[in-house]
């Protein structure tokens, strides 16, 4: 039986981003578009650039990545999956003794009441606490 990968293992997998031309309408992407499929590492790096006390919505993140990689859109499905990997992996780092300042501030992108936030193994309260701390500072 295969050993289950940790979230950190998933974050550090060597997945190459790619652009795929889609033949049918997909989510909010019309057929014939070039769709960018990021990687967990790329999402992690993007979030690391968001300044303290700032928040970026998922639509902006997707748009920025599409522009940066010469695509029309960024895949909403893989972006959501990869964003969860980023959040869970960085929370794992915290559990392993890293300081808050040493992890990727994923709470700057994930909306506390989103479907994604409700799936996180550590719950929504952590997101709310971090957002509140940054607003108060």
Please characterize this protein's 3D structure.
The chain has one domain (7-136). Strands 1-2-3 form a three-stranded mixed β-sheet. With 137 residues, it is mostly helical. The longest helix is centred in the middle third of the chain and has 20 residues, at 76-95. Helix content is 46%, strand content 7%. 26% of the residues are buried. α2 (40-48) crosses α4.
Determine the mean pLDDT.
95
Share of residues in strands:
5-15%
Total count of helical runs of at least 4 residues? 6
- The sequence of SSEs as H and E is HEEHHEHHH
Rounded to an integer in angstroms, the radius of gyration calculated over CA atoms is 15 Å
End-to-end CA span? 48 Å
Large-scale geometry: globular
**Percent range of helical residues:** 40-55%
Structural class by helix and strand composition: mainly alpha
Instruction: List the strand order in the largest sheet.
Output: 1-2-3
Number of domains: 1
Report the count of strand segments.
3
Residue windows where pLDDT falls under 50 for at least 5 positions: none
Main beta sheet:
3 strands, mixed
Compose a concise summary of this entry.
The chain has 137 residues and is mainly alpha-helical. Helix content is 46%, strand content 7%.
What does the secondary structure layout of this molecule look like, with pairings?
Elements: H1 7-12, E1 18-21, E2 34-37, H2 40-48, H3 58-68, E3 73-74, H4 76-95, H5 115-119, H6 125-136
Parallel strand pairs: 2-3
Antiparallel strand pairs: 1-2
């Amino acid at each position: 039986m295969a050993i289950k990968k940790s979230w950190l293992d998933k974050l550090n997998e060597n997945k190459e981003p790619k652009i795929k031309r889609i033949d049918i309408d997909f989510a909010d992407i019309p057929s014939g578009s070039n769709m960018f499929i990021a990687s967990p590492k790329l999402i992690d790096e993007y979030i690391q650039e968001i300044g303290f006390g700032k928040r970026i919505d998922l639509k902006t993140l997707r748009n920025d990545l599409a522009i940066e990689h010469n695509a029309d859109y960024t895949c909403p499905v893989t972006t959501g999956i990869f964003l969860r990997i980023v959040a869970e992996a960085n929370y794992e780092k915290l559990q392993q003794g890293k300081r808050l300042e040493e992890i990727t501030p994923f709470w700057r992108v994930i909306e506390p009441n989103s479907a994604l936030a409700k799936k996180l193994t550590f719950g929504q309260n952590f997101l709310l606490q971090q957002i509140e701390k940054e607003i108060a500072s």
